[in-house]
Amino acid sequence: MTYRIAVGGIEHESTSFIPAPTPVEEFQRQTVRGDALAKLGDANTIVDGFVQGVCDHGMKLVPLLWVKGISGGLPTLATYTMLKNDLLERLRDALPVDGVLLSLHGSFAAVGIDDADGDILQSVRELVGSECPVIAVHDFHSNISRQMVDAADVLVIERTYPHIDMAEQALHAVALMHRILDGDVQPTMAYRPLPLLWAAPTMITAHRPMSDAIAQLQALDREPRVLSASLGVGYQWVDSPLVGASVVVITDDDPSAAQSYADQLGQWIWARRAQWQREPLSPERALEQGELAGQYPIVLADQSDNTGGGAPGDSTEILQLFVERDLESAAVLYVVDGEVAEAASFAGVGQVIDVEVGGKSNPRLGPPVPMHAEVVAVSDGNFTYDGPMWAGVEGFMGDSAWIRQRGVNVVVITERQQPIDLAFARSLGLDCRTMKTISVKSTGHFRSGFEPIAGSIYNVDAAGQFSQDFANLPYTRLGRPVYPLDVEAPLGW
Prior knowledge:
By secondary structure, the protein is of the alpha/beta class. It has helices spanning 24-29, 34-38, 46-56, 77-94, 116-128, 146-151, 166-182, 210-221, 255-271, 283-293, 317-324, 338-347, 423-428, 447-450, and strands at 4-11, 14-15, 31-33, 60-68, 72-73, 99-104, 134-138, 154-157, 187-194, 226-232, 245-252, 298-302, 330-336, 352-357, 369-379, 382-384, 394-396, 400-405, 408-413, 437-440, 456-460. A hairpin with a 2-residue loop joins strand 18 (400-405) and strand 19. It is globular, with a radius of gyration of 22 Å.
């Protein structure tokens, strides 16, 4: 018998701290349907991993659709309903299927719906019935809910930050699906939420303390009854009662063991809750530390303006610092400023333009920075990522330019994206390896490409809307004491 496996997904990391909703056009631009989805399989994404794995196991691929919207404001209920219905209608038309594989971010919300991922999973379950296995793979920064757990047979969460294991975890999910359908295993899933806000600089999985947590997951992998073990560190920039870390463990027909393992890992994480925090670090102080250490390039991660997490990408505090200090061989990647990109393109390469860079989206991100800059290169924004994260994925920055004022280089883009690797800068002719100081509007994913060339890396807290000082975020709906906002927060179980 050849198993028919439906594959699809709707991915969005949704923030309530940006008032403007993510427009439907943002989702439509990054939608792959039917036959186009079936042609994937070569890049490092969850859906590519699904496609490859289904084919490798000799199963029949039933492609639905894959929607991927860049992180941003909550989409409207109408936008969400349209996306969900498109997925469900395609699944309904494809029935009967033997299994469903979904790529869902795990931190998707819409206006009026805190748990869009759970709602999608529940709707899929209602369509396919209780006997059809449903497996979802989530982002590392997921807010796992009871609804998600109850609606799925298996939830798998990425284990790396930067996310270099997207296809790997998808292949793991497909292998589990095949074993379930063959009758080799019967998954029993347990879940343990934690009232914990996890600071992003401590999430980097290649370094301690996060590597210690990953080692705990790897120890669970060696337990004979464990089929899968996952840790979600949460997505903190949404005002929702779902916010927080969580543990998910799946065993083979042993629910009590699954819950015991999940509880043990949850307690291990909670006992070390202070380790997952970090004191703020100003750009000035970080630059001083980097120059004192003399390990170049010095990379300043502007985590409060991380476009990959939904931020606008046009804060100016670090750019202003670089200009005021007249740094030599410095670069800022990337400032989202379509006006400057257009002006540079209109003027042409080699021309000098007077522009005000950044600072246009919100007063909290600082004023525009006046620059008398040479246009070094312009681009339509199309390129291909190097990886290892997003290796082989086609990228699009919109109209873009590399401008330079003395030793300060700035890449301005039109579409909000964070610098994952060196590929786009290189497409402009900018060799980041020759820079002494680099600022990236990213929290952790930049490490995929920049860590191999960096002399030192500092996550800094410049002015922005996505502070890592959680006390400065306008939470009103958490619904329970959460650490570190409430130092005495109880574990609650």
